[in-house]
Amino acid sequence: MDTIRENSFLMIKKILLFNILFIIVSAQDADSLFWFDANSLQEDPPQFPIVINKVFTGNHIFILDSIKQLKSKVNEGFRIQIFESMVSSIARAEAKRFQNILGDTVYIDFETPLYKLRIGNYIDRKKAEKSILAIERLGARDSWIVRTKIDMVK
């Protein structure tokens, strides 16, 4: 009876020792906690949302957006999502194309891993539903309404 207890105790001791050693060895792995290297990114991190204005382009966008933020307050509402892509350059090109077709401000929102193109600032869903029909006729075929924060000009 005592030998069975001693063997059980020895077995439990070996299992505990093995588990402790395993934890120590696996914690020493250099990649266990810090596996992401920001220097390995091929593109600059996005600074979004970018607002593409009808008149200005380039560096003026950020200036106009910051001025617009002073004049507006943000509210819950609806926008129409017209496009999404995982590649920022494609999203920017499509934003400019839709900007020219639709003649409205195009918002680019980055929600990992997608760049989402959205238009409009609708307070209620019924107005967004009326606009989506016209937008689909202009070429944004697979568009849909999303609930998001919108700009409300004072």
> Main beta sheet: strand number and arrangement?
5 strands, antiparallel
Count the DSSP helices. Answer: 4
Spatial strand arrangement across the major sheet = 1-3-4-2-5
Low-confidence segments, ≥5 residues, pLDDT <50?
Answer: none
Number of domains: 2
Instruction: Write down the Rg.
Output: 27 Å
What's the N-to-C terminus distance? 86 Å
* Proportion of beta-strand residues: 25-35%
Q: What structural class results from the helix and strand content?
A: alpha+beta
Overall helicity: 40-55%
CATH topology type of the largest domain: Alpha-Beta Plaits
Anisotropy-based shape? elongated
Architecture per CATH nomenclature, i.e. the level-2 architecture of the largest domain:
2-Layer Sandwich
* Overall pLDDT confidence: 76
Q: How many beta-strand segments?
A: 5
Please give the structural blueprint.
Layout: H1 2-27, E1 50-52, H2 60-71, E2 72-85, H3 88-102, E3 106-111, E4 114-122, H4 125-137, E5 144-153
Antiparallel strand pairs: 1-3, 2-4, 2-5, 3-4
Describe the structure.
Strands 1-3-4-2-5 form a five-stranded antiparallel sheet. It is elongated. It folds into two domains: 35 residues; 114 residues, 2-Layer Sandwich (Alpha-Beta Plaits), CATH 3.30.70.1070. It is α+β, with helices and mostly antiparallel strands.
Tags for this model:
154 residues; alpha+beta; Alpha-Beta Plaits; five-stranded antiparallel sheet; 4 helices; 5 strands
